Task: structure prediction
Amino acid sequence: MTKRLALADRIVSSRFGTSRGLVRLLLAHAQTLAGIAKIVLPEADAVRRLVFVCQGNICRSAFAEAAARQLGLASCSFGLSATAGTGAHTPAIDVADTLGIDLRLHRATTWQDYTPHTGDVLLAMEVRQLDRLAANPGLADLPRTLLGLWASPRRPHLHDPYLLSPAYMRTCFEAIATAVAALDRGFPNAREDRSFARSP
Result:
């Protein structure tokens, strides 16, 4: 029994981060299926830039932005509770390296320093982040959705890997990479040949 519990803990840790991460993933599936997540989808042809949103802008959204830029997509990122100028989390840098993404030059951006542009779509990691975006007068009018809905398989909750296992960091980043690849196909006009593409 003890060995089985230990194995179950390892599986949860590597695939979902924590048991809370698993619960929130299941809840997010229910919320999106019920249509109560505060998603406002854009017209695909109207999207000109992908804006990735997470908590601190040092793991998930940082990786998503870098992966999108590597594909030639116009993108930026910010954190809802970020400290401006903070570098990417060191374990995130290490795991991103193994996936061919360099986060060494990344510096966190706060939502206050983000300047919306016509054609932006906000891509959050969690349903509760959608709630915060919807409640923010400066951001509420922008289209928004969950990045993990584009992942394969779908993961409407991408649990924060900060201070969690390297195995889960990799699971999270691999899911984000599949989502970014799908965004590349889904938003053909989001190319990084626009003058504002590198603006925060």
Q: What stands out?
A: Strands lie at 49-54, 75-79, 120-124, 144-146. The CA atoms of residues 151 and 179 lie 4 Å apart. The chain has a mean pLDDT of 94.
